[in-house]
Amino acid sequence: MRFGSNVVAFDLCGIPAVGNLDNGAVAGLTPEGAQLCQRLFEEDVAEEEARRIDPTLAQWLIDSEFFAEPRETAPLTLAYLHVTQRCNLSCAGCYSEDDARNNCEDAPTDAMLRAIDELAEGGVNVLTISGGETFLRPDLPQLLQRAKEAGIGTVTVITNGTCTSDEALAALAPWADAIAVSFDGWSAQCPAHIRGEQRFHLLCDTVHRIQAAGISAHITPTIHGKNAGDMARYVQLARELGATMNYSLLSCESSDALAPLLPSDEALRSLAQSLLAQGSMPKSSGGPVPFSLFAATSCGAGVKELSVAADGAVYPCHMLMRPQFHLGNLFEEPLEAIRRRALEMGFGQLTVDEFDGCRDCGHRYLCGGGCRARALFAHGSLQQPDGYCQLMRTYYDQLGASLKQQFA
């Protein structure tokens, strides 16, 4: 047995580890396990010998496909589908707002259904339905039905929580795996930095009605410089509502009018400590998620993930929906051609070992370089560190120190 070329070794604050970049599997190693893995990088080792040295590790490495060669192209697994550009609110920092907001008609149902079929056939297993405001589209249940019947495993709808009706929720119930409600404050007294007007009680009522319809409810605050210390309060709110919790990190250029809301390095360090206390991972815009470590060399934009705008235009991810990253139009051409174009534009080569400021970092195979959009916003380049690097560095520093103490 010998490790495949997609296996990497790294050190987490003194704990040797190996990771499979194909599936994200990570294992911390004992001294004996580290010696065995070093040999597996360099030479063929008989399975019987590996099992004799460390039977548990050997079996785990086999089960986790550490000896398989990597796929030529990583599979597409995630997609955003924006079903409308209409919205009844105007939230500061909305990633999808552009000149078409409330100025264009919704795409025909048939076009959306064909796009969903293409995504399903292309391998997408996690689909996020976004907008605009999704509940302004009357055929939303039909779109979700097609997604589930096409075999997409998880379908989540994002909403601002102000337009849901009991009738629409009942129609979505057989098809929606979850509905995520955006929050801008953990109580009615919190200032609404993003929305401008606090609608806390309305949003809590929306969560309850989603649950009454039999659908899982998420709450999704946007974390920024003014509320980076409030993560525990949002977690408590989710518990009180009986909901799960996602979060997004406010991301925009430093020249943007929202720049005063961008978190400082001190706020990012505080957020990292809060996430660690909650058992949550900082690199996912959809966190908190259950405690785990995941090996990666990139965020997957343009390769593992795509974003489809309301007019069918395709982009590498929902945060890179900009003209220079336009990959094609799913209403007009097959997904396969669009994916090829993403590779031709270099998204398959956006790996953390190539990023200035990342290639020598000991945590690079855990954060994967973070978010390419935030790198662009902070430094003007996709090949620079995530502007929120301090968040991930602090998190993994403290996590590694904790694990080292625990297993010393």
UniProtKB/TrEMBL annotation:
Keywords carried by this UniProt record: Iron, Iron-sulfur, Metal-binding, S-adenosyl-L-methionine
Stored Pfam families: Radical_SAM (PF04055), SPASM (PF13186)
Leader sequence residues: none
Entry's Gene Ontology molecular function annotations: catalytic activity; iron-sulfur cluster binding; metal ion binding
InterPro entries: 4Fe4S-binding_SPASM_dom (IPR023885), Aldolase_TIM (IPR013785), Radical_SAM_PqqE_MftC-like (IPR050377), rSAM (IPR007197), rSAM_sf (IPR058240)
Domain Radical SAM core span(s) in chain numbering: 73-288
SUPFAM superfamilies: Radical SAM enzymes (SSF102114)
Keyword Iron-sulfur recorded: yes
Domain of life: Bacteria
Transmembrane segments: none
Name of the protein this chain belongs to: Radical SAM protein
